[in-house]
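Hi everyone, sorry if this is the wrong subforum. Our group has a chain we'd like a structural model of before ordering constructs, and none of us has done structure prediction before. Sequence below.
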Amino acid sequence: MARILVVDDDPDILETLQYALERQGHEVSAYADGRLALEAARHAKPEVAVLDVMLPGLNGYEVSRLLKEDIDRGDLDDFPILLVTARRVVSAVRQDFLATWSRADDTVWKPYDLGMLLHRVQELLGEVSLVPATGEGEGQ
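Answer:
Right subforum, don't worry. Here is the predicted structure as tokens:
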């Protein structure tokens, strides 16, 4: 069982993710606002965070960056952050900049398959090994 922070301003997505992760035995803290999620993470000390990018208060990129700065200062133990976004950035350079600036560990694009997202969370928790998504390396 892991402590997982889930943040999404869409109540249906938030409820679905919370339910699915709790069914896997995890303790889930769910928020719809970036600023509230940041404060909650500082107290709850999650083992992984799943952050939507487009949030009220602070966006997911900002929350991720601030949490990684807390980790750098030693205020929090290190934990992986998974960004979830439907926002497509026009430029690959801009997307790379945002990914680097936010310091998130991984990104999932909406719409996504729930099973795939749950698998990514398990990977970040170290519960399953990283397996090539395309089947590369099979039979070798």
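For your construct planning: The longest helix spans residues 60-73. The two ends are 33 Å apart (CA to CA).
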